[in-house]
Specification:
Blueprint (H helix, E strand, L loop, with lengths): L14 H10 L4 H46 L11 H16 L1 H16 L12 H6 L1 H35 L14 H36 L4 H57 L6 H28 L2 H6 L1 H11 L4 E5 L7 H20 L6 E7 L3 E8 L11 H11 L4 E5 L6 E8 L3
Parallel strand pairs: 1-2
Antiparallel strand pairs: 2-3, 3-5, 4-5
Helix pairs in contact: 2-3, 2-4, 2-6, 2-7, 6-7, 8-9, 11-12, 12-13
Length: 445
């Protein structure tokens, strides 16, 4: 939940709104949530601070007794100084372990306090389970610092806020009862204390919210992860996102290949068989009425058209030659079928990944379609090369130009497909031509 802050000096706010905000502040939900947060923080902070001080003091005391014994054992002339008792050897490590582990429940309790009272979720750093891991972790010592300060700081904050809440209202309404008291000050003194009471009553919510903001900032700084841990976590999330996106793209390509195989081996074969049977029937139509003959001929032609459409659909999903023989052979196939003369030059030392091959193939296919349908080109030049783990695809046509991704669904789709593998697509198409599409597709060969 966002916390309101007092208007800055440079902020221009209408005076009625400022007055209304000040008058409503004592009854605002945020003010009372902040007050409850500070009130709960006093006992919790005192307990955590007492635990840190007590365990740290005992650990230091036992270590100070253990020091002369260690020196006497290392340096024989100092053996008379070895006055430590045997129990000091046994207590140092457990006390130090308890001191480090004391931060875990205290941090969880503080996190619940921020969540329940202020609806603020503190990002907790990852905790290690072993003693050496806790001691070597910087977040452990930052948490110890916070819990050491939580008691005195929280007490001072709540004392200020509680004083304003408790003193302000009685002073603000004292004109209602002070005249019935045995003794009271002058009228000027009563009016002055009343004004001070009103000021304290309206300052209390702002003080509570300021103290809560200070507590949030301190807790985020000391209880949350360090900047390095945040960067590591962000890097891990980005890597996970990249891996999941790559898996989705590969799954989509695999699904397209499966659909292509099913159509090729199932529906297409049945249509071919149907067309062959209709063709045989068409050759033996002696003595058949004209309307029956026409129906068989039309059915045969429709079957051949359906086969051609299905083959075009299969090639659009995922051409089988792309998996079997690679990008060079697949581009050669669509170049040969193009209605516009094509010059093709593919120079790749090795086959790139299937995903990169599919993106490059569909990029060239869409570019050839646009050149034939919209650009009115008479020549298309296609060059595919490799540079520093990047496959570069350049398609140039001599058409009329003026291609823009804003007005073309096909070009927007190409940019999205190229961007799905963190590639880049640049379109250079001045009016009058030529049009050049340059795609850089990342791929480790």
């Amino acid at each position: 939940m966002p916390w309101p802050t007092p208007p800055a000096i440079t902020t221009v706010v209408p005076m009625p709104l400022q007055v209304r905000a000040v008058l409503r502040a004592p009854w605002s939900t945020q003010a009372w949530q902040a007050t409850v947060h500070l009130a709960v923080g006093v006992p919790l902070g005192l307990v955590s601070t007492a635990g840190v001080v007590g365990l740290a003091g005992l650990t230091i005391a036992c270590a100070s007794l253990l020091g002369p014994a260690v020196m006497g054992w290392l340096v024989p002339p100092l053996q008379p100084l070895a006055t430590a008792r045997p129990w000091t050897w046994v207590l140092v490590i457990p006390l130090f372990t308890a001191l480090l582990w004391w931060t875990v429940p205290c941090t969880k309790a503080q996190g619940h306090r921020f969540t329940r009272a202020l609806y603020e979720v503190l990002p907790n750093p990852p905790q290690r389970r072993r003693l050496l891991g806790l001691a070597a972790q910087a977040s452990t010592w930052r948490q110890l610092t916070y819990h050491l300060l939580a008691g005195p700081l929280g007490t001072v904050e709540f004392a200020l806020v509680a004083a304003l809440w408790l003193v302000g209202p009685p002073m603000a309404v004292q004109p209602l009862y002070i005249w019935w008291l045995p003794s009271h000050g002058s009228v000027v003194e009563v009016l002055l204390t009343t004004v001070l009471g009103l000021a304290a009553f309206h300052l209390a919510p702002w003080m509570a919210m300021w103290c809560a903001e200070l507590d949030i900032a301190l807790a985020t700084r000391l209880l949350g992860p360090t900047r390095q841990q945040q960067m590591e976590e962000m890097s891990a999330r980005m890597q996970s996102l990249f891996d999941s996106r790559s898996d989705v793209i590969e799954a989509a390509d695999a699904e397209r290949r499966r659909i292509e195989r099913d159509l090729h081996d199932g529906a297409q074969q049945r249509l071919v068989s149907l067309a062959m049977n209709l063709g045989v029937a068409r050759l033996d139509l002696d003595g058949v009425p004209d309307h029956v003959r026409k129906s068989i001929v039309d059915a045969h032609e429709e079957a051949k058209t359906a086969i051609a459409d299905l083959r075009s659909l299969v090639r659009g999903l995922h051409p089988a030659v792309l998996d079997e023989r690679g990008l060079d052979a697949a581009l050669s196939g669509i170049s040969a079928r193009s209605s516009v003369p094509v010059t093709l030059n593919v120079n790749l030392p090795h086959r790139p990944s299937r995903t990169t091959e599919a993106v490059a193939y569909f990029l060239v296919s869409e570019a050839l379609t646009n050149a034939a349908k919209h650009a009115q080109a008479s020549r298309v030049d296609i060059r595919v090369s490799h540079r520093k783990n990047i496959v570069v695809v350049v398609v140039t046509d001599d058409g009329r130009g003026g291609a823009r991704s804003e007005g073309s669904t096909g070009l927007r789709g190409l940019m999205q497909r190229v961007g799905s593998i963190d590639g880049s697509l640049r379109i250079d198409s001045p009016v009058g031509g030529p049009t050049t599409l340059t795609a850089e597709l990342p791929c480790a060969l």
